Every structure is written in structure tokens, then in C-alpha cells.
Amino acid sequence: MKIKFSWDVGIVLSLITFMIFIIYIAFFFPNVESQLVSDRYYEEEIKYQDTINEKKNVLNLDKKVEIIVNNNGIKIIIPYDNKISNDNIIHGYFTLFRSSSKDLDVTRHFKISKYSNVLFIPKKMMKKGCYKIIIKWKYHTKKYLFEKNIFWK
């Protein structure tokens, strides 16, 4: 039995394919697990102007934040502004944000001297994959925010 392919047959095959696709989405897509980036989305959206100001503060620094990735971990050199204060301590925290899994996120507080101004993240804190590193710190009364995507091998 040979079926002649015509417009009628093409339209019927297209409709059947489309219906199978819709049924597949209806039954199998709700079972896919997804995670929200934040549980407090609206609260964070209202405070976003502070984030914009903190990013501008980083851009206004004389030196730029340096990130050096090597086999032992990640070395971050945080600059400071001598014009602001003579404080010797930089307070802050960093987050290694992994968009694929909330369980692989890492957040740690740090306190470093402005003279050594180096933050080191050892390799044991990370699994292979793509991370967004978010560093927030406070020097005197000014707040700073730096973000960068890195890939850990």
C-alpha cells in the first residue's frame, strides 16, 4: 500500500505531531525540578539602587579588582581607596553562586588587611563548573560590589 504524499497528508501529519508534542509537554514538563534564584525576589528588587551604587563605587576605584584562577584556588586582589580613610581592615563576604544547583553555592565572610588585600578561595570549596563570584565589601563607610563569571576546571 503506497500513500501518496499531498497537502492533506502533510496537514494531518503536522497536526498529529503537534498534538504529540503538546501531550509530552503537559505530562513530562511539570516533573522537571527547578529552583528560584531568590525566595525574596520583590524585596531585593526594591533595594537594587543600592546595588547599582555599590557597582559604581568599584568602577571609581583607582585600581581594578583582580581575579587570578590557578590550580590551588582563586586569588582575589581587592583594591582600597586611600582617599577615604586610614582604616586598616576591609570587611565583606563573597559568594560563589552556581546557577545549576543551590546546593553548590558557597558564601563566606572575610576580614583582610588593606596592606595584604588578598583573598584566597581554596579549590576544595568548588566543584567543576561555571560560577558567578560576587564580592561585597565595606571599607570605612563605603560599600562595594564586584561580580564576575568564572569557570572552575
How would you sum up this structure in a few lines?
The chain is an alpha+beta fold and 153 residues long. It has 2 domains: 1-32; 41-152, Immunoglobulins (Immunoglobulin-like, Sandwich), CATH 2.60.40. It is built from 3 helices and 7 strands.
Give the secondary structure arrangement, pairings included.
Layout: H1 7-28, H2 41-46, H3 48-59, E1 66-69, E2 73-77, E3 89-97, E4 106-113, E5 118-122, E6 129-139, E7 142-152
Antiparallel strand pairs: 1-2, 2-5, 3-4, 3-6, 6-7
Structure description:
- With 153 residues, the protein is of the alpha+beta class.
- It folds into two domains: 1-32; 41-152, Sandwich (Immunoglobulin-like), CATH 2.60.40.
- 26% of the residues lie in helices and 35% in strands.
- It is built from three helices and seven strands.
- A four-stranded antiparallel β-sheet has the order 4-3-6-7. A three-stranded antiparallel β-sheet has the order 1-2-5, with no helix packed on it.
- The longest helix has 22 residues, at 7-28.
- It is elongated and about 90 Å long.
- The N and C termini lie far apart (57 Å).
Number of strands: 7
CATH architecture of the largest domain: Sandwich
Radius of gyration: 25 Å
The helix count comes to: 3
CATH superfamily of the largest domain: Immunoglobulins
Order of helices and strands: HHHEEEEEEE
Helix content: 25-40%
Distance between the termini: 57 Å
Classify the fold: give the CATH topology of the largest domain. Answer: Immunoglobulin-like
CATH top level class name of the largest domain: Mainly Beta
**Overall domain count:** 2
Q: Which spans have pLDDT < 50 for at least 5 consecutive residues?
A: none
Strand content bin: 25-35%
